[in-house]
Write a structure and sequence with these properties.
This protein is α+β, with helices and mostly antiparallel strands. The chain folds into 2 domains: about 130 residues, Diaminopimelate Epimerase, Chain A, domain 1 (Roll); about 140 residues, Diaminopimelate Epimerase, Chain A, domain 1. The protein contains 4 helices and 17 strands. About 45% of the residues are buried. The structure holds the ligand N[C@@H](CCC[C@H](N)C(=O)O)C(=O)O. The site of the ligand N[C@@H](CCC[C@H](N)C(=O)O)C(=O)O has 19 residues, from strand 4, helix 2 and helix 4. Homodimer.
Length: about 290
């Protein structure tokens, strides 16, 4: 069967987007579709699959599947792209609207230029800090801030944050030598995290600026992670290395995001969203 798709990216974090307002797809196929469409040799090539779909509780709904077919539950870069797509394709007509993810409903504000959307701000809601809700091993109700852990014989200091999906954040002195590719996969599947985890390495440049690299659960190395950037700024505040209520510029491999953990608790994320291509994917169900 032919499935209409749009490929979009937020700072290089690229997904195949399928518009379920126009084309319905059986839920049972989604993990397999995500794996096949993401394959760079036999599919289109992407970090995963995102569904833009009707929602009973918001103006539009989003589901995200990683490259390996696992469901991601939330995706910051995906939310900005969904907001851009929804506005540019007439799914919504206002510049402020709501998007439902697997974990919460977020507010989106699109910035327009001649009917197109170059930038989006998403209110990502409150970070989840309770250990058992990350989820992280142990039923402790306290948060995980600068906790010593040993991974692959390396002593690390871990801060854990969920933005609807789990993140393990580590401070490094020099982002260029951060062990993203070596330790990233070991952290991802470490027994401390029963649902696996996204691993972020961050280098503070100042209290308002940091460098960031990520190993994503289910997708591996990507150029950016929106929920990860939010988690990084929350971790920086929790470790008293950044201020709440102030913008922090996060430099990711694919570009910059502007993140603020507001005084009342929500995390705001602002950044770009771009369309790459659209067409038909020839899907073979085996
Ligand atoms: N790239 C995303 C996050 C995608 C999901 C993640 N890999 C997970 O499994 O939690 C982002 O921009 O937030």
């Amino acid at each position: 069967m032919k499935i209409p798709f749009t490929k979009m990216h937020g700072l290089g974090n690229n997904y195949i987007y399928i518009d379920r307002f126009a084309c319905n797809i059986n839920d049972d196929w989604l993990p397999y579709l995500a794996r096949t469409v993401s394959d760079v040799h036999t599919g289109i090539g992407s970090d995963g699959l995102i569904l833009i779909q009707p929602s009973k509780h918001a103006d539009v709904g989003m589901r995200i599947f990683n490259k390996d077919g696992s469901e991601g539950k939330n995706c910051g870069n995906g939310l900005r792209c969904v907001a851009k797509y929804a506005y540019e394709n007439g799914i919504v007509s206002e510049t402020s609207f709501r998007i439902e993810t697997k974990t919460n409903i977020v507010d989106a504000d699109v910035y327009t230029d001649a009917g197109m959307v170059p930038y989006v701000t998403i209110n990502m809601g409150m970070p989840i800090l309770r250990r058992s809700d990350i989820p992280m091993d142990g039923d402790d109700r306290s948060s995980v801030v600068a906790e010593p852990v040993v991974i692959d014989d390396q002593s690390l200091s871990l801060t854990a944050v969920s933005m609807g999906n789990p993140h393990a954040v580590f401070f490094v002195e020099d982002i260029r030598s951060a062990p993203v590719e070596t330790l990233g996969p070991r952290i991802e599947t470490h027994q401390l995290f029963p649902e696996d985890v996204n691993a972020e390495f961050i280098e503070m440049i100042s209290r308002n600026e940091l460098n960031f690299r990520v190993w994503e659960r289910g997708s591996g190395m990507t150029q950016a992670c929106g929920t990860g950037a939010c988690a990084a700024v929350v971790a920086a505040v929790l470790n008293e290395r950044a201020e709440r209520g102030e913008d922090v510029t996060v430099h990711l491999d694919g570009g910059d995001l502007y993140i603020q953990w507001q005084d009342h608790g929500d995390v705001l994320m602002t950044g770009g969203a771009e369309t790459i291509a659209s067409g038909d994917y020839h899907f073979h169900i085996t």
